[in-house]
Structure formats: structure tokens, C-alpha cells
Design goal:
Layout (H helix, E strand, L loop, with lengths): L8 H8 L10 H7 L10 H13 L8 H16 L3 E7 L30 H15 L10 H7 E2 L7 E2 L4 E2 L5 E2 L3 E2 L3 E16 L2 H4 L13 E17 L3 H18 L12 E4 L10 H11 L3 H5 L3 H14 L8 H13 L5 H8 L2 H9 L6
Antiparallel strand pairs: 1-8, 1-9, 2-5, 3-4, 6-8, 7-8
Helix pairs in contact: 2-3, 5-8, 9-11, 9-12, 11-14
Length: 370
């Protein structure tokens, strides 16, 4: 955190001989410690604009090797721990932490260690909780409702819990929600910072002073940062049904309500890619083999045509692949159920079970009783 009295802007740059940030500079450190000029002088807006431009150029489609390694460790840990992962792609620039403490009058949440933009888990959780309370009709998803409490926890009334607009009060105790929202990290090389400018044309009028706007008012440009790119979302929830519901909520909120500041101006819209709770897809070879078996005809089974044997030979090849291991039981059951639906009499089913492909299937993987 940068304190207001801890500036030394020109001295720090000149002492280190830095006219511009090095290519590997930490964006958070540079923005907090390296103001080009004293921000209190008459050229303050230009100095701040220059700083914003410098920081925005630090992540122009690249990431440091240190951050790449850190992201790989974090992503691997999330996968091993069973986290539900998805990609959040920015449709419009996002600004999280605009009002945070900074040398500038505006801010952007950057990771202190690596200087990359992040989406705090608290921001994601708050967005999902607010969207559920405001937009869902079921009482269970409103503040203090059963599903809302389970997903997001509760906050006592004397600590800001409840909803002033509806008169709903908070709970008596703090409780932790069952869903853990991890801070979303940007994918290396797939994010960038943007320099933005908001120009206030009538500051005294908008500041609440009794002075009407006029053409001769001096506009004041305010420079700030935004972020764009792909971020990795990570959620933990032991209850799959609850996890699915919260992920769907967060997806709707990110795509419709938007995240962060200036959402009414279009900032903070995301497209969520992937569904971490969707059942996994079987390997392509196995999916193709099952598709061929679904197209079997009754005569293929009753007459035990060579085509029947060929299709099951391809199925056996697909089942032998290591990536098909978790799908074998379901695939075998589906394939044999399809054949059994045509072999309705005892003699036909007995002849099917004498087939070479059936014996191989039974000896290698076992077959269910149908």
C-alpha cells in the first residue's frame, strides 16, 4: 500500500536513472512508486496521464517468465484440488478497484507480487450474491434464504448484513458459504492493460456546488487503467448441485450485470467459456464408435451381419485407448443395450453371445447382465 506521504516521485526516478519503466517492471510497483512529477503541481494531470500510459505498456500481449511459472503452479494446484475451472473473456474493458487507495485518484486491482490485473474472489462472490438476490424470483435465493445462505454465507445485521432497500435484516452470526471463490488470474500472454481517460467538463457543478455549468469551465481529464483479456475462474464446492447453480448465477451476472466500476457505461462485461460442471466428453474415437453402433439395424443383429462384427471391432479398438478408461463401463452398457433391443428372443441373444467380438468384450472388460 502506498501512503500519501510516501511519494519521492522525481527523486526515485532520477536516483535510479529511469526515464521509463524497464520491460520486466512490476506494473503495481511502477504505478505506486514512480510518478514522473509531483502530482500536486499544475501539471499533475499530465504527469498522471503519462504514468498511466507507461503502466499500460508493460503488459502489451506478454507476460514475464516469473508470472508464467507462478500461473502454472497455481493452475496445477487448482486442478489437483478439484476446483471447477472456466475462462472469463472480457467483452469490454474491466475496472475492479477504481476507488482503491493510489497515488492516482483512480486505481485498478493489480497483484502486488507479479503486477498483473486480477479479479478478486470477493468481487466475484459479491456480484453473484447480489445478482441472485435482485434477479431471482425464488425466496431461497434472496438474502437469508436457504440457498443464498449456503452459497454465500451470512453477515450479522450490525456488520452490514441484510438489505436496506427491502428491509430484510442480517443474521445473528457470521457463517461461511459452501462455495469458495478464488481470485481469477489472467492467462499469461492473453491479457493487457489499457489507458483510459474520463474528462469532467463541469467539476464544480458535478461536485455539488451552487454553480451552473458554463462553456468556459475548464475540463479536467482523469486518467485511469482498465484490463482486457482472458482470466481463469476457479470455484470450490463439495455439493455439485450447489456448485452448478452458483456457476450459472455468476455466468449470468458477468454477461448481463457486469463486474467492477462504470458498468452503466458498458465496462465489465464478460463471456464465460466452458462449463466446469458439465459431464466430460468421451474421446473422439470412442464417440464415433458408439455413434456407428447407434445406427445398427435389426437385420444386422438378427442375421449377425459382418457389419455388426466390424462395428464392435472398432469399439474394442477405441475402448483399448487409455483416455477411454473412465468411459468404458458406460460405453459397453450402451452398446450392448442397443444390440439387446433387437435381439428380443432368447435364441438370437444366445447367438449374439457366441460371437467372437462379444467373447472378447466379456473377457477383456466384462459385460453387464441385460
Amino acid at each position: 500500500m502506498t501512503l500519501p506521504g510516501d511519494r519521492m516521485p522525481a527523486g526515485r526516478r532520477s536516483a535510479l536513472g529511469l526515464r521509463s519503466p524497464p520491460a520486466e517492471a512490476n506494473a503495481a510497483l511502477w504505478m505506486g512508486r514512480y510518478m514522473p512529477e509531483d502530482s500536486d503541481d499544475k501539471d499533475g494531470p499530465r504527469a498522471k496521464a503519462r504514468l498511466v500510459q507507461e503502466v499500460a505498456g508493460l503488459h502489451a500481449g506478454r507476460a514475464t517468465d516469473v508470472y508464467r511459472a507462478a500461473y502454472a503452479r497455481w493452475h496445477g494446484a487448482m486442478q489437483r484440488s478439484g476446483a471447477a475451472l472456466a475462462t472469463l473473456h472480457t467483452v469490454t474493458p474491466v475496472i475492479v478497484g477504481l476507488s482503491g487507495e493510489s497515488l492516482l485518484e483512480t486505481n485498478l486491482t493489480l497483484d502486488h507480487t507479479y503486477g498483473v490485473p486480477v479479479l478478486p474472489g470477493t468481487a466475484l462472490k459479491g456480484l453473484a450474491a447480489q445478482y441472485a438476490h435482485v434477479h431471482l424470483q425464488e425466496d431461497e435465493w434472496r438474502v437469508q434464504g436457504e440457498w443464498h445462505r449456503r452459497a454465500f454465507g451470512t453477515v450479522p445485521a450490525d456488520a452490514g448484513g441484510g438489505d436496506a432497500a427491502t428491509g430484510e435484516t442480517g443474521s445473528e452470526l457470521f457463517t461461511r458459504g459452501e462455495v469458495t471463490f478464488h481470485t481469477a488470474l489472467p492467462r499469461p500472454g492473453e491479457f493487457r492493460l489499457r489507458a483510459e481517460v474520463l474528462t469532467v467538463h463541469h467539476p464544480e457543478y458535478y461536485g455539488g456546488q451552487d454553480k451552473p455549468p458554463a462553456d468556459w469551465d475548464s475540463p479536467i481529464p482523469v486518467s485511469f487503467l482498465s484490463a482486457m483479456g482472458d482470466f481463469t475462474l476457479a470455484l470450490h464446492c463439495e455439493d455439485t448441485e450447489l456448485g452448478q447453480a452458483v456457476f450459472a448465477l455468476l455466468k449470468l451476472a458477468l454477461e448481463r450485470a457486469r463486474l467492477g466500476a462504470k458498468t452503466s457505461s458498458g465496462y465489465g462485461q464478460f463471456h464465460v467459456q466452458g462449463d466446469p460442471f458439465a459431464p466430460p466428453e468421451p474421446p473422439a474415437a470412442l464417440a464415433e464408435a458408439l455413434k456407428n453402433i447407434r445406427f445398427l439395424k435389426r437385420n444386422d443383429v438378427v442375421r449377425r451381419s459382418p457389419d455388426l462384427a466390424n462395428r464392435f471391432a472398432r469399439l474394442l479398438e477405441a475402448l483399448a485407448q487409455p483416455e477411454a478408461q473412465s468411459f468404458r463401463e458406460a460405453a459397453i452398457h450402451e452398446a450392448l443395450t442397443q444390440v439387446r433391443s433387437f435381439a428380443t428372443d432368447r435364441d438370437t441373444w444366445r447367438d449374439v453371445r457366441k460371437s467372437a467380438w462379444y467373447k472378447t468384450l466379456a473377457e477383456t472388460y466384462g459385460v453387464p447382465e441385460l
